[in-house]
Every structure is written in C-alpha cells, then in structure tokens.
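On clarity, I found the account of how folds are encoded harder to follow than it need be. What matters is that the chain and its backbone geometry are given together, residue for residue. I therefore recommend that a typical entry be quoted early in the introduction. An entry of this sort, consisting of the sequence and the corresponding backbone structure tokens, reads as follows:
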Amino acid sequence: MIILKNKYIVFQCRKCKHLLFVKNISVEKLEEVSKLDCPECGEEGYENWILVRSGNYEKEYGDT
C-alpha cells in the first residue's frame, strides 16, 4: 500500500489546464472526480480529468 502523507493527487482539466487537488483519495472520490465539471471553464466531467502528479496544495498555494 502507498501512503501519501499530507499529499494530494492532482488532476488537470483537458480543456483549460485547471488543477484539481484531491486529498484522501479513494475509489469513491475517483468516481466523484470523473463526473465533476471543471469549476474554471465548465467543461463536462466525462473523461475530462487527467491524473498528472501528487502534490501538496498548502505548500504550493498557501492556506487560501
């Protein structure tokens, strides 16, 4: 088992490259992400999100 302490799985919108950080990843969360429309450009969720890397939102963007 892989443990990503304080890490997020980062997905990217195919259309506008918006990043989506998902913490505590699970099969249920993956299903939720797959259906999620992009909050930036509105692209429909079906096959939109690309898994790009792991990351830490707080370190990259602060506590906003």
Observations:
- Residues 55 and 61 are 11 Å apart (CA to CA).
